[in-house]
Design a protein that fits this description.
Strand content of chain B: 15-25%
Strand order of the largest sheet of chain B: 6-7-8-3-9-10-12-11
Structural class of chain A: mainly alpha
CATH architecture of the largest domain in chain B: 3-Layer(aba) Sandwich
Shape of chain A: flat
Radius of gyration of chain B: 26 Å
Number of helices of chain A: 13
Number of helices of chain B: 22
Subcellular location (chain A): Cell membrane
Bound molecules: iron/sulfur cluster
CATH class of the largest domain in chain B: Alpha Beta
CATH superfamily of the largest domain in chain B: P-loop containing nucleotide triphosphate hydrolases
Organism (chain A): Paenibacillus cellulosilyticus
Distance between the termini of chain A: 16 Å
Oligomer: heterodimer
Number of domains of chain A: 2
CATH superfamily of the largest domain in chain A: MetI-like
Strand content of chain A: under 5%
Largest sheet of chain B: 8 strands, mixed
CATH class of the largest domain in chain A: Mainly Alpha
Shape of chain B: globular
Distance between the termini of chain B: 45 Å
Number of strands of chain B: 24
Number of strands of chain A: 0
GO molecular function, one term (chain A): dipeptide transmembrane transporter activity
Pfam families (chain A): BPD_transp_1 (PF00528), BPD_transp_1_N (PF19300)
Membrane topology (chain A): Multi-pass membrane protein
Chain lengths: 312, 670
Amino acid sequence: MFEYLLKRLSVSLLVVLGSMTIVFIIVNVLPGDIAQMLLGDTISTEKANELSSNLGLDRPLAVQYWDYITDVLQGNLGSSYVNQSSVQHTLLINLPSTIELTLTSSLIAVIVGILMGIAAAVYRDSWIDSVIRIISLFGVCTPTFWIGLLLIFVFSVHLHWFPAIGSGGLSHLVLPSVGLGLSGAGMLARLVRNSMLEVLHKPFVRTLRAKGIRESTIIFKHMLRNAVIPAVTMAGMIIGEMLAGSVVTETVFSRQGIGKIIVDAINAKDIPMIQGAVLLTSVFYILINLLADISYMYIDPRIRKMLRPSTQ
Amino acid sequence: MGTLLKLNQVSIDFNTRQGPLRAVHHINLEIGTGEIVCLVGESGSGKTITSLSIMRLTDYEGAVISSGELMFDGHNLASLSQKEMQELRGKRIGMIFQNPMNALDPLFTIESQLVDSILTHRRVTKPEARKLALELLQKVGITEPEMRLKQYPFELSGGMLQRVMIAIALSCDPELLIADEPTTALDVTIQMQILQLIRELKDTLGMSVLLITHDFGVAIEMADRIAVMYAGAIVEQGPARKLITAPEHPYTQGLIRSVQSYHSHSEGLYTIPGSIPPLQELPTGCRFHPRCAFASERCRQEEPVLALTREQHQVACWNTAEAGQAFAEYATHKETAAPINNLAALPAEDDLLVDIQQVTKTFPLRGSLFRRSKKAVHAVDNVSLRIYRRETLGLVGESGCGKTTLGRLLVQLEKPTAGTITFDGQDVSSLSDREWKELRRRMQVVFQDPAGSMNERWRISEVIAEPLHVHIDLNEQDRMARVKETMKLVGLNPDWHTKYPHELSGGQLQRVCIARAIILKPSFILLDEAVSALDISIQSQIVNLLKDLQRELGLTYLFITHGLDVVRYISDRIGVMYLGKLMELAPAEELFTRPAHHYTRALLDANPSMDPDHHAQSSISDIELPSPIHLPTGCRFHTRCPAATERCRTEQPELREIRDRHWAACHHPL
Ligand code: SF4
Ligand code: SF4
């Protein structure tokens, strides 16, 4: 078990390093002179060159890459090209709001998705199943920004139930989370429905009935637990999706957060900020998947024991 | 003896898109207190759905009890609500199922599944339930019960799991135990142990047992009374012994004669022609008439109902007198026919086709990141075996003995870790790809699951012609001619070449597989459990076909199976494997009449026979099969052998010839 975790962790670290490298390459091969872009067209080439050397942009790429990696390893993400503020600091301030959104939308996705999946499986081929199928299809197929706009249109412009944009209290969180969560819920619902139906025909369900166990216990204790095993890996992915989706959603709802920072930084060609934000998101993404794997082990004893060193 | 359960004119329908489909028609069945009743039938006979209907589990399988009563201790089970049934299930009626490997929830421990069952029906506290669970495991004879309680289903063997299932079913002292094919998925030595356990528990607890099986041998071992089902109806029922010795329904007679003919060495096995009709296409009148030798005009028109023919014995047939007479004649004739036991009749051992020399195959276990695992599964360990031209070599053994791996090594589906395999003078492992492809034409394979081994979207003709594409070029016309000719050879109607696999029955599909195997005119066919999944009446047809083909085409067979009766009938010589080792090798009759190895003896003892006076028994201890990773030292069988000595524990016995052409690897042969 410990060995397995160690292995997974080292792989994760490699993935982080990989994503850092890819981002580094992408932002550095962007066409155009960065200093020139930062300063605008009216500035002379000398000025631009001066800025370049100040920022260290005139050094060879390999050196820049090496410095970047060593800085990150020392916990230094650099400072913004735009306003010289510390990247760590900016990210840290904005992190809570993104985590908030990711968590609430993931929660919605997981809870609603699993419940819809169960209901669809238990009442398969009835109208309940059909309605759920339509909702999931809608959630999966519709882009999140469009759902977001739709929600704003209905619930704030028309009904005035929730604020349309901005960050703040719980009420600001509802629409973005629902909009974002719906797509994940759709995916999960379909998965859970299918795996519930698969479990339904497993011989052990027949045994449970033959034992006289109550149908509700069979569904919620036994079938669900077996059915969520494939869903757990998926849930990891979905939470990751939510994280990625928050980039778009934060923009649509003009919310504060990492997503907005990334968009702004891209527009401003603020390379340290882009790199920092991407690094942070990939670390999160990987952590979430690691967590999903661990809970997977927790649920399935077969995997747990397989990983334990043999005692025989 | 009072009646505990009485099925009165019960009919069961499946709900299908095309409307209700009758699966079971007007059956009457009684089970007395303390009685074991066996419901015997082939697949599609409706025996399983009948057993589920008693628990009203049919409701969950898309079926309904459409008419009749199921009287259990004064209640009509058919009219109870699911809620009321829930009270009964697991408490007064317990049930165990066919495949114990997937009958338990994989995510919960044995303890939690036992305790759940106890707490559902008994007013006890959780600690008390835990104690009861432990006692139950002891009662069903599980070794190291404390440890087992903490384990998960995947950590237990099939035999142990079936014991756990029995423990669960018995947790609330039910009055009736329903066992649906409880030993079909288990090895023969384990089967006997489980059957013995059921019988012992029945005696001590005084419960009744309804045992569902396809195996007449098991039924005879266990039953007080037997009911035979065919295509959804009970065709005959009565006290077990008389039913076996003097059956009156032509179907029962046919089945019994089929089974018995495996031991008779007559020319060909007795077979019932045709196959079981699908539910949608039941014939008019007597549902057996298209396959019945006694069918008369009346049989085609009018459906016979169960009628008393002698004491406690009911038959649904219009012509019982004639049929009974015919069977009596057969029975007397059988008594006088002496079994052949002739070594000289064996194929000459001069024409070597396959030579397996000291072949070993180990599968390394996956190690962890930091250290390579030194452990390995020893699937086949230093086995030498020769197969002579035109003979059938049988290879038997229980699961995990390595017989299938040996077959796979032979046809290069697996590469040996050590040793050589020579086919017709050529070392197969040293061949180039082209040479191997050439050789492969002459060695073909037929597996257990015919449907799984063909593309379901191909027409039959395409399936059969497949090897022709790979190995030789023929024009379309010649290929079709070759396909049709081969179809005729295996007893398939050549006009069926445009059909798809799902339109054929299991027996017909296996004929397709055989056709595909012989179309290239091979000299050798590996038959890996090729008839094991088939119903007895179909199995004998296929075995006959294989024998005929062997004679006509001069084929050599390696026949791998766990079925002892079949292997005895079809083989010239038989090898017995245990945990990767060849334990005994002898001519078929010699092996069955004078086994030398203690393991062979145990296998034969455990095999249920058709003789009501002879009880199968388990002559080896209840100890589980050792794992192929941690093999016993010395003789691999010593942990279970009744004759094991100190020498057996330390020194591995070599295979040696103890009698003429009879080889055994044992220090103290029988
Ligand atoms: S009723 Fe007729 S067809 Fe049916 S089993 Fe009897 S003799 Fe055969
Ligand atoms: S060698 Fe010993 S343990 Fe093995 S079968 Fe013979 S008597 Fe039994």
